[in-house]
Each structure stands twice: as structure tokens, then as C-alpha cells.
Amino acid sequence: MDRGQWPSRAVRAASGAMAVLLATQAAPLLAATYCVDQRAASAADTNPGNEAGIVCMPRGAEWPLENVHVLNNLLIRNTITGDGHARGGELTVYMGCPENSYARTVTSNHSDYNLYAEAGWAPTMRHSWNPDNTLQQWQQRFGEDRHSKRMPVLFEFRGTGFKLLSREGMGAAGPLPEPLQWKPPAPGLVGASATQWP
Predict the structure, then answer these.
(1) pLDDT score for 85
(2) Cβ neighbours of residue 96 under 8 Å, at least 6 residues apart?
(3) ∠75-80-82 over CA atoms, to 5°?
(4) CB within 8 Å of 169: residues ≥ 6 apart
(5) Which whole-number Å values give the CA distances from 75 to 7, 55, 66, 100, in the listed order?
(6) Which regions of the chain are under pLDDT 50?
């Protein structure tokens, strides 16, 4: 949901059969959106400059993670680079792949209509905690983010502050699932309605 409509602390709101998990606004450069329960969605959020982006992973076998939808988000520089390798990633969505394989066993978790900023390092998507996929690999291996794209995004960081300098090219948002009765203020735009914080 849109971080511009909620208080400056982590919020979890139930909407029909789906739960919407939101990142904190108080420390947006350090916090990520974490989906830890079934039937979760991250929709129309902006995730800039943290080490994890959006993470949707189960807490263990007794808490499976299914029916997750990550849609219409703007993800900016959530990969920390150094010494020739990267840490973190833009998006982690559980696919239930056995170790060292791309054999997907969970087919109800989906991501699409997201915008991945080009910011000096290729954005990565993960199907478990560590294996990195480029957007093209993510699309080919798992069929996810078919309508998502990578593009340059104008933004600036100042201390713990963030400012989106342009929304050009961000009119690529897709439809939200019916059970999620919330509608974003600008339905056609990817990301939150708030363009700077604090």
C-alpha cells in the first residue's frame, strides 16, 4: 500500500482475505517491506536504498508462504555493492525451489508491474535467500515480473532522506487483485504517492 497514506511506523492492515504489509516510513533507508504471513501483498510502495528491498520468505515449514502478490512497486538501489560483489537485492519472493535448483514448487506467489531502477548495479531478484537472478533470468526461469521493467530513475539521498526527482516513465502500474479492496491515489503510477521523506 501507499506509504504516503499511513503513519510513520510499520503497519499491517487486513483487507478482505489479504494482508498488506508496509515498510516503515520513519527510517525508509533502513527498513524493507517483509511479507511473513500467507495471502500478503506489497502494492504501490517505494523502496529506496536498503539492503533487502521487498522480502517475502517463510519463517519455517510450519508457516508456509503462499498467495503473495508484489505489484506496482518502485525499487531503487537496494543492493549494496563492494569488493566486486553485491549484498542484498531488490526483491526476494519464495518459489519453494529445492536447494541449488530452479524447480519451482510454490506457484501462487507472484510479482509484476514493478519498476527496478538502474542505479549503477544491475537489480537482482531472488527466489530464496541467496541466489541472484537478473530481471531477464527472473522472467525466464519463473515467469514473474513479465510487465516489469528496468529504467533510469532520477532520485537523491541526503542523510536518511529520499527524494524522487521525476515520475517520468512510471505510468506502468497494473491491476491489483480483487480481494485487495484498497485503491492507490494514482492507480496508473508505480510506487508510493509520497515522493520524498522525511
Answers:
(1) 66
(2) 104, 105, 106
(3) 150
(4) 115, 151
(5) 21, 12, 22, 26
(6) 1-32, 36-37
Q: What is the pLDDT of residue 9?
A: 26
Cα–Cα dist 55/38, whole Å? 13
Please answer whether residues 3 and 194 qualify as being in contact, where contact means their C-beta atoms are separated by less than 8 angstroms: yes
Cell 501507499 sits at which residue? 2
What pLDDT sits at residue 156?
Answer: 94
Residue-level pLDDT at 121: 76
Picking from 20, 125, 111, 30, the residue whose alpha carbon sits closest to that of residue 71 is 111
Using a 10 angstrom Cβ sphere, with 0-12 exposed, 13-18 middle and 19 or more buried, the burial of residue 47 is buried
Q: 89 with 118: CB under 8 angstroms?
A: no
- DSSP conformation class of 93: E
pLDDT at 84: 65
Tens of pLDDT, residue by residue over 79-137, are: 777 666 667 889 999 999 988 899 999 999 999 999 999 877 788 999 998 888 999 99
User: Residues with Cβ < 8 Å from 180, sequence gap 6 or more?
Assistant: 15, 16, 18, 20, 41, 43, 69
Grid cell for residue 188: 496508473
Q: Where are the domains of the chain?
A: 3-197
What's the burial of 105, exposed, middle or buried (CB within 10 Å: 0-12/13-18/19+)?
exposed
C-alpha cell at 68: 503473495
